[in-house]
Amino acid sequence: MPKRNGILSTLGLNVRQRREARELTQEKLAERAGLDATYISGIERGLRNPGIKNVARLAKALGLTTADLCKGVDA
Predict the structure, then answer these.
(1) Rounded CA separation 13/45 (Å)
(2) What integer is the mean pLDDT of 48-61?
(3) Taking the model in full, what pTM does it have?
(4) Which CATH architecture has domain 6-65?
(5) What average pLDDT does range 4-11 have in this prediction?
């Protein structure tokens, strides 16, 4: 099992909280962002390291700015 990274875990938590607040499933978010649901799952669990383009796609799909989605994500 891959090791979790604190930065990725924080981003994943942000994605999950924003998604759940909008009452979206991972599948619906994936559809809106043009990504795969298993990829969304990996991001939310802090196991995937999405590129900035995918972070921006997620933010847009959630109605957020990229900066808002990345709040608290510090190196």
Answers:
(1) 8
(2) 97
(3) 0.91
(4) Orthogonal Bundle (1.10)
(5) 89
> Whole-angstrom Cα distance, residue 48 to residue 40?
9
Question: Rounded to whole angstroms, how far apart are CA atoms 69 and 12?
Answer: 10
Ramachandran quadrant class, 34 (left: phi over 0; alpha: psi -120 to 50; beta: rest): left
Mean pLDDT in residue range 52-59: 98
The token duo for 56 is 């921006």
- Domain-by-domain residue ranges, the chain? 6-65
Give the 3-state secondary structure of the chain: CCCCCHHHHHHHHHHHHHHHHCCCCHHHHHHHHCCCHHHHHHHHCCCCCCCHHHHHHHHHHCCCCHHHHCCCCCC
pLDDT value of position 74: 83
C-alpha distances in Å from residue 57, one per residue of 26, 40, 60: 14, 11, 5
